[in-house]
Amino acid sequence: MPVSLKDLPKNRPSMTSSPSSVAVGIDIGGTDIKAGLVGCDQSILERRVIPTEASGGPNHVISRVVELSNDFKQIAVRRGARLAGVGIGAPGSIRAARGAVVSPPNLPGWTEVALVDPVSKAVGVPVTLDNDANAAVVGEFWCGAGRGTRDMAMLTLGTGIGGGVVLNGALWRGRHENAGELGHKIVIPEGRVCKCGQRGCLEAYASASTTAQRAAELVAGGRKSSLCEIVGRGDTLTSKHVCSAARAGDALAREVWEETCRLLAVACVNLQHTLNLERIILAGGMSAAGDDLLRPVREHFGRQMWADIGDRPEIVLAELGNDAGFVGAAYLALKHAGVAVGAATGGR
Amino acid sequence: MPVSLKDLPKNRPSMTSSPSSVAVGIDIGGTDIKAGLVGCDQSILERRVIPTEASGGPNHVISRVVELSNDFKQIAVRRGARLAGVGIGAPGSIRAARGAVVSPPNLPGWTEVALVDPVSKAVGVPVTLDNDANAAVVGEFWCGAGRGTRDMAMLTLGTGIGGGVVLNGALWRGRHENAGELGHKIVIPEGRVCKCGQRGCLEAYASASTTAQRAAELVAGGRKSSLCEIVGRGDTLTSKHVCSAARAGDALAREVWEETCRLLAVACVNLQHTLNLERIILAGGMSAAGDDLLRPVREHFGRQMWADIGDRPEIVLAELGNDAGFVGAAYLALKHAGVAVGAATGGR
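Output (structure tokens, whole complex):
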């Protein structure tokens, strides 16, 4: 019997028999390429992380993707499984019609880079391409914290805040394929300037980096805090510092951390009034804070949202960590190939 | 050829030949019952408005609904059309399983009142029941400002702010059937107390009544304004007063009106980042302000939202006015009966 994703120890492939159909999932990041061979039964047969070597340019990165895919293809063959395709999640805007990625923020110098055609030609299977944030949402939906739901959203709290919405079991893309930009919902009109150019975005307050930045500004403004020591020795403040100091009772850190959690809760309230979801998942680097994040977000949600208990979504932490992207990319490849996938029914 | 809704003069039934299938649409309000006989081809064959006489109690109101429905049924028979059903839009929460409405705010003394069974028994056709706000959204979607879209939202600006979301051509109800509560999205965290108990809801700032209320508070606070005259002679300020005074250049009124439009634009920006819609409709009493509402909302949207033009929804005014509710209720009845409806494909 295949081992399910949740039971599998990290970074160790399962040694069990294979599912009939499998797909390669590839998650291209600025630093690493995370990849895996994923079965239609939600099992991960093989998992690998290699450096992106983005400085080598697009063609070099494509050759690394091809090499990984061909390795996985051989593994699939050895196991007697049918390789349904390769799914790629990439940062930046996707031009689906041209199978290309446009100006990914973490891959400097990439303007428009076609990925689908060269990989498909070199590997000999269909290739699907999607945004890395979409892939991660679909991954959690299929195999992680979203399992068993039909209607959910995810907030990915990293340098920025990514997001995604699954409705009726499928990623909701919207009219211009630009839905789920949940980090750019305005939570404080005319508030802090966001990197996107808007003012008052959730991302301008409650991402890992802007949480740290708000604390750093208060420290620079002369407020007393245990964080002054970290800044004093020349280290850059992180959201982890803020969270730890808040837990230890530092007043400045608590104020900043509570504000982050309060505004994340506002975003959850607004999602709920708009879409009435089953579940909202907090993911990304900052979700490693665990209960220190989850508890106050839930509390602020409870204080701000209507009291009617039946109406509330579960607010939970993501489960797949760095696997979410390649698992979701593989899922989209399986769906694209018309393979019946285990448990969840979504994606498109 | 049937006359389409948009070409039809108000309050005059068309005298043309009938569509094959028709439904009665009933919109129960606190003051009036608005009703019509609507064809599957989007034509209104007959339209009627009678006082609700809510003080007579639930049974009296039900008898009025039955009487109206039977009148319309006879008209359908005379015209040789098949009456597919009766659709009712009612205020308050709907208990779909029991065909009942619960504690409608505009019908004092109604606790849980079953509507589906008594009307269905007395009229002899299937009866569908939905929230009046949902019915209005579906009405505009099918025959009004939403025609031709698949993905849209509507903000109904009245005493409160109602709303609704149509995705993939169907009303999005969500997990607990409570989606589309767009008036209770929080736009100013910890802001003004809303009637719903939350703080900082859109409805607490930008409904017709809260717009007037914010102006009244500034007048009461001693600010100079042409509105002081209206208050001075004992009249109650309305959003219409505020809009007119703003147009005439009154500084206080402009400030209040701009704030309303700015926060409506924030709500539109947030809807767009979440769902990436084709169109957002401004409806309800305050939409009678026309361009005085539409222009500044669009301007504030343009100033606050990403500049990428291809990503923007059309922001438009509703077209059906008071007809939207009964048209949408009839649409839901037609869909329920499995009748193929003209043009739009949505609802469920």
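Confidence is low (pLDDT under 50) at residues 6-15, 344-348 of chain B.
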